[in-house]
Amino acid sequence: xxxxxxxxxxxxxxxxxxxxxxxxxxxxxxxxxxxxxxxxxxxxxxxxxxxxxxxxxxxxxxxxxxxxxxxxxxxxxxxxxxxxxxxxxxxxxxxxxxxxxxxxxxxxxxxxxxxxxxxxxxxxxxxxxxxxxxxxxxxxxxxxxxxxxxxxxxxxxxxxxxxxxxxxxxxxxxxxxxxxxxxxxxxxxxxxxxxxxxxxxxxxxxxxxxxxxxxxxxxxxxxxxxxxxxxxxxxxxxxxxxxxxxxxxxxxxxxxxxxxxxxxxxxxxxxxxxxxxxxxxxxxxxxxxxxxxxxxxxxxxxxxxxx
Length: 307
Fold this sequence. Notes:
By secondary structure, this protein is α+β, with helices and mostly antiparallel strands. The protein has helices at about 35-45, 100-110, 115-120, 140-150, 155-170, 185-190, 195-200, 205-220, 230-240, 245-255, 270-275, 280-285, 295-305; strands spanning about 25-30, 50-55, 55-65, 70-80, 85-90, 170, 180-185. Helices cover about 40% and strands about 15% of the residues. The strands form two sheets. Strands 1-5-4-3-2 form a five-stranded antiparallel sheet, covered by helices on one side. A two-stranded antiparallel ribbon has the order 6-7.
């Protein structure tokens, strides 16, 4: 069976390209910026084959479509210790879409955040870790799949399933980084599958159906998962897909849409950090943090870490 689910299907590969040939770019940000916390968040959720965290750097594969052409390659992101910026190395195969790579990196690392405005809204909640950012997404469909796979399971279990999904349906890539082997599947490929094909990876059938449902909505143009999408309309479309509840919709809005006011009020970690058992009370308490409730979520999750 080919990796895209069709017997005998050709395996498309991108030329290797050495790391020394990479295009070097940078993006600035307003301090403070807790790179370590953001990197740790990504490392715990890294999809094997697609992402890798090592030596204070985040590496991943990318598939970016422009004018009907899919560009595939890899990037490596590191902090620029001499300046308020991050350095981004990208493979030659992504040079023609470098502007889109930078835009996605800016969203994924929340580089446009104004920490002062966030701190003013969060008050005491944000004082301990003023440099926390809300990790966004390089790909909205990828973020949605992660959210669905994370329903009522541990982070470790979710990223294990995500790695199986990427290996089964993603595009194989040759890269100079041994840990990067494939690009995350495109929604149009998943839209053509039966949910049972996805469930065969060990994914609960209702979640498999939700993944295919989102892929079809994206492929048909009924749904957009990027920061330019209308938040309320997107949330309504997501909730109408069987298997997508409020927690998943808010998580997708938080990461794929980059909505700073997203708040998954039924999240176990959020409730535990607040000392609440009733999600409605958590939602009421979060009113004080508008319009930056997504940042409140990051601080609440951070407060649960040991030490």
